[in-house]
Protein: IS5 family transposase
Organism: Acetobacter musti
Amino acid sequence: MRRYGLSDGQWERIKDFLPGREGHVGGTAADNCLFVEAVLYRYRAGIPWRDLPVRFGYWKNVHRRLRRWCESGVTERIFRHPAADHDNEYMMIDSTIVRAHQHSAGARKKGGADQAIGRSRGGLTTKIHAIVDAAGKAVALFLTPGQRADITEAEPLLDEADPAAFIADKAYDADPLIEKLEERQITPVIPSKKNRICPRKIRFSIYKKRNIIERFFARLRQFRGIATRCDRMKSTFLAVVQLVAAILGLN
């Protein structure tokens, strides 16, 4: 396997979800595998689109094709495929902040669209929220501006998961979330904040598994184009995060 390339096993598991595949209605795409590897190369190396090696084709065509896949939901379908085969024993939620490069600013806000770029202590930032299963596979992903509190995206993301136990740190210790988990008969494994009058007891043997999501974020941030966001459009950046998370889930 070439550096930054897909293994044969990874390609076999995603190729049937791509447009333009052989036997698919419509035109046949020119080497879908090469295109996916071009996107992975660009974000793993963290280079500008114009610096994409010529073996991947004209950089503008690659970028244009990524935008088409993004708008038509192709990357989301790729992400949903491995995510559907998840472990329900326990799941965990957390978020990570990535720096937004100055080139990521200035996108046109069509209809007041939020591009998930905010200003926090580190300057312009984007926050990636994720739910991960016991095997370290991403089940749900979302982006918000960097200053947004972690708890705000917990309930929407939880709608896409149904674990027996739900692990989170103290930032997610809030009565509405705890009540929703208990209504769905999901065991909350969330330490109580110091100001909680009646601290809850949790199983720390399960809580210590939370390092799985930290390792997931560490692997995700090995892609320099994700660790530092240069994309102006929220939809483009989310599509790439979904694609990379899907590939990581296939390892």
Q: What stands out?
A: Residues 87-232 form a domain with the Nucleotidyltransferase; domain 5 fold (CATH 3.30.420). The mean pLDDT is 88.
